Amino acid sequence: MKKTLLLTLAVLFSMALLPADTTVAQKARTYIDKYSDLAVKEMYRSGVPASITLAQGMLESGYGKSALAVGANNHFGIKCHSDWKGKKVYFDDDAKGECFRKYPSVEDSYRDHGDFLRYKPRYASLFDLETTDYKGWCYGLKKAGYATDPKYAQKLIGIIESYDLTRFDSLKPLSSDAEEELSIPQSPNELESVNRYSGSGRKGTYAVSLQREVLEINGIPFVYAREGESYKSIAALYDLFPKELARFNDSEPDRKLQPREVVFLRNKAKYAVKGLDKHICSEGETLWGISQKYAISLKSLLKLNGIGAANAYVVREDNTLLLRPAKRK
């Protein structure tokens, strides 16, 4: 009788221990199953590794169950900041009643997270890291001030390693087979229904199907170069001359393109988007690279900063470059 009682108590005790651990693991798996495709898609759009996006989403949103995630679709704890024009909600965080961004959907939260890291100068150095360097990204996020938790980097690394999230960093949103199987719309109405961007080419209006997603930086349309592509091959897709396309990108027509390189489809802007007034340089950057990052012409960047010629200027770490005209005092 005593042995039976002890065995029963032991079983009950072990069962009592399981739910907490099992629930966390179940929440994590559910979150990964639900949002991993979105994280991979964002990786190819913004350059933020899918493992980082998923780990931050899981940590910041309590696996999608936090009040901020449920009530505002905010999975990354991004606060309003002065440049936010969307809806707002207020929660207690580091201080009482802090302003957080509210999104129409989780997809909008993921997209804003990618843009937030990509276009905030303090995170610029992260994009010099390989997408496979998840530890470098985690420590870089903490160093740049993404969170105040002193163990933030270690927590992200723990999540990534516990759930093998780095496996998503080598995936693609669509396989080459899947791209080939996509049906090409035949009528103008069908074509219009799948466009992400349409604009004017040399000979009139052009449109782009989901087989080649066209995105925007600073209102300027661009595509990511694929393995083996050139200005000539990309120009042919969009009814442009190779020299014209190279000029849009302050480059030479015969320059070899790197996979995932940004290629703008029209002239870059004169200034960066409002709110991005300055860029703090990192080691190894170039004026051309900075002009591509913010979609502003190299000529404008030189003029804004009183630089005579790009090859006569050496970019040094912590140098400050104007992206918009200095505000008058």
Description:
With 329 residues, the protein is an alpha+beta fold. The chain folds into 3 domains: 25-170, Lysozyme, CATH 1.10.530.10; 176-264, no CATH class; 278-322, Membrane-bound Lytic Murein Transglycosylase D, Chain A, CATH 3.10.350. Helices cover 42% and strands 11% of the residues. The chain has helices spanning 2-46, 50-61, 67-72, 106-119, 134-143, 152-162, 176-181, 188-193, 231-237, 242-248, 287-293, 298-304; strands spanning 87-91, 98-102, 198-201, 204-207, 215-217, 220-224, 262-264, 278-280, 320-322. Strand 5 and strand 6 form a beta hairpin. It starts with a helix and ends in a 7-residue tail after the last strand.
Strand element count: 9
Classified by CATH, the class of the largest domain is Mainly Alpha
Q: In the CATH classification, which architecture of the largest domain applies?
A: Orthogonal Bundle
3D shape: globular
Q: Tell me the domain tally.
A: 3
Tally of alpha and pi helices: 12
Largest sheet entry: 3 strands, antiparallel
- Classify the helix fraction into a percent range: 40-55%
Gyration radius from CA atoms, angstroms: 24 Å
CATH topology name of the largest domain = Lysozyme
Please provide the ordered H/E string of secondary-structure elements. Answer: HHHEEHHHHHEEEEHHEEHHE
Distance between the termini: 87 Å
What's the multimeric state?
single chain
Class by SSE composition = alpha+beta
Poorly predicted regions are 1-20, 174-211
Strand content: 5-15%
- Mean pLDDT, as a whole number? 79
